[in-house]
Amino acid sequence: MEYETLAKEKLPKMIYDYYASGAEDEWTLKENRYAFSRILFRPRILVDVSKIDMTTTVLGFKISMPIMVAPTAMQKMAHPDGEYATARASAAAGTIMTLSSWGTSSVEEVASTGPGVRFFQLYVYKDRNVVTQLVKRAEKAGFKAIVLTVDTPRLGRRESDIKNRFVLPPNLSLKNFDGLNLGKLDKTDDSGLASYVAGQVDRSLSWKDVQWLKSITPLPILVKGVLTAEDARIAVQYGVAGIIVSNHGARQLDYVPATIMALEEVVKATQNRVPVFLDGGIRRGTDVFKALALGASGVFIGRPVVFSLAVDGEAGVRKTLQMLHDELELTMALSGCRSLAEISRNHIVAPWDPPRVTPRL
Ligand SMILES: Cc1cc2nc3c(=O)[nH]c(=O)nc-3n(C[C@H](O)[C@H](O)[C@H](O)COP(=O)(O)O)c2cc1C
Predict the structure, then answer these.
(1) How high is the mean pLDDT of the chain?
(2) Nearest atom of ligand 1 to the alpha carbon of 282
(3) pLDDT tens digits for range 171-209
(4) Annotated binding residues for glyoxylate, as ranges?
(5) Beta-bridge partner residues of 97
(6) 60: left (phi over 0), alpha (psi -120 to 50) or beta
(7) What is the Cα–Cα distance from 320 to 44, expressed in whole angstroms?
(8) Which of 82, 188, 260, 300 is the most exposed place for a label (fewest CB within 10 A)?
(9) Residue 100: CB within 6 Å of ligand 1?
(10) So what's the architecture of 2-158+202-349 in CATH?
C-alpha cells in the first residue's frame, strides 16, 4: 500500500491513473479490499510452529510460496527495466511470473532474463494467425502455460483513462506485436487502449475457442476471469488445467463481487477437479491465508508489482514478494498452521457462515 503512495508521487498522472484505476464508480475496486476485512481468523494455539513450509506445486512446478505475479500490461511505463525487472524478481523469489500479451517487452526478451517458471497471458485477437504465431513464440520461449483472459470482449469503462486520453508513451510499444504492426496505440479522443481493444480483440470469443486453443498448443490453459459456479463447471468440462477467479482488478464490469466473495462457490463447483486461483485486492499475507482457507491453491498479485516496480525497479518487486512471503509465514505461525495443507476452512469465519453454536469438527 505504501508503494502505491510513493508511485503516485513519482509517476506522471496518466500512467499512475492507468495502473491504479478501476471501472466506472470503482465500487468493485474498493470492495476487492474491503471484503477481505470482513473475514476473520479462528487461530489455533499451542501448535509447534518452529518449522513452516510454504512451498507448493502449481501445474507440476514447485514454487516457494502460493503467491504469484499476475499479468499487468505495459510495465516499462512504470520503470525502464519493466518486465525484465519483474521476471528477475519473480525468479529470485522462486515464484511464477505471468507475462501480459501487452507487455512492453516480448516473450523472447523476457525469456532472455534467465531461468524461471513463466506463464503467458493471452488476449485473443480477431486475426487468429496473430494468436497462433504468438502462442508458438511463447512455447518456444519456454513459457509453461497459457493464461486465457476471458473477461475482456471489450475494455471496461475506465474513466480516468478516457479523461487522460490514455496512450502509450512514444518510446514504448506492445513488443509482442511490433513485427505485426499492431504494437502501437493510436491517439483517440477516448482511451487509446479501449479503441485498440475495440479494433483488435475478438468479441466473438466463446467456449469453442477454448477447444480451438487446445488444438493449437499442448500447453495447459488457465482461464482467468471466472466469477460463477456455472462458468466454473463449463470450464472443467472444456478441459482447462485451472481457473483463476478474477475481476481483472476491478477494471472490467463494475459491481461484480470482490473475488474473495466469489471464490468459495467456484471452488465447490469444480469439485477438486482443477486447481482454483484468485487475484484481486491481495495486499497482505493475511489476505493470502484467507484465500487459501476458502479453497484457493494460490493467488496472484497485480498492482503491488507495478507500484513497487515504479518506485524501485527489480529491488522493489523483490521487496514486495518478500514482504508478502514473510507476512503469510507469520499468519500461518499465529494461526497454528505448519504447511499450506493445514490451512483449513475452520481457520477463518466469513460473514456468510451460519452462527457458530457448537464447534464445527
Ligand atoms: C495496470 C494493470 C494492467 C493489467 N493488465 C492486464 C493484462 O494485460 N492482462 C490481463 O489478463 N489482466 C491484466 N490486469 C489484471 C491483473 O492481471 C489482475 O487480474 C489484477 O491486477 C489483480 O488485482 P490487484 O491489482 O488488486 O492485485 C491488469 C491490471 C492492472 C492493474
Answers:
(1) 97
(2) 27
(3) 999 999 998 989 998 888 889 999 999 999 999 999 999
(4) 18, 123, 248, 251
(5) 69, 118
(6) left
(7) 28
(8) 188
(9) yes
(10) Alpha-Beta Barrel (3.20)
What pTM, to 2 d.p., does this model score?
0.97
Q: Domain spans of the chain?
A: 2-158+202-349
d(C-alpha 166, C-alpha 102), whole Å: 15
Q: Which one, of 217, 222, 218, 216, lies nearest residue 58 by Cα?
A: 222
- Contact indicator for 339, 32 with CB cutoff of 8 Å: no
Our answer on whether the CB atom of 156 is closer than 6 Å to any ligand 1 atom is no
CB 274 within 8 A of CB 240: yes
Query: Could you list the active site residues?
Result: 248
Nearest Cα neighbor of 134 from 68, 72, 95, 182 is: 182
How far does the centroid of ligand 1 lie from the alpha carbon of residue 336, in Å? Answer: 32
Q: How many CB atoms lie within 10 A of CB 42?
A: 16
Q: Hey, whose CA ends up nearest to atom 1 of ligand 1?
A: 19
pLDDT value at position 269? 98
Helix %, strand %, coil % of the chain (to 5): 45, 15, 40
Binding site feature residues: 18, 71-73, 100, 121, 123, 149, 158, 224, 246, 248, 251, 279-283, 302-303
Q: Grid coordinates in use for 83?
A: 518486465
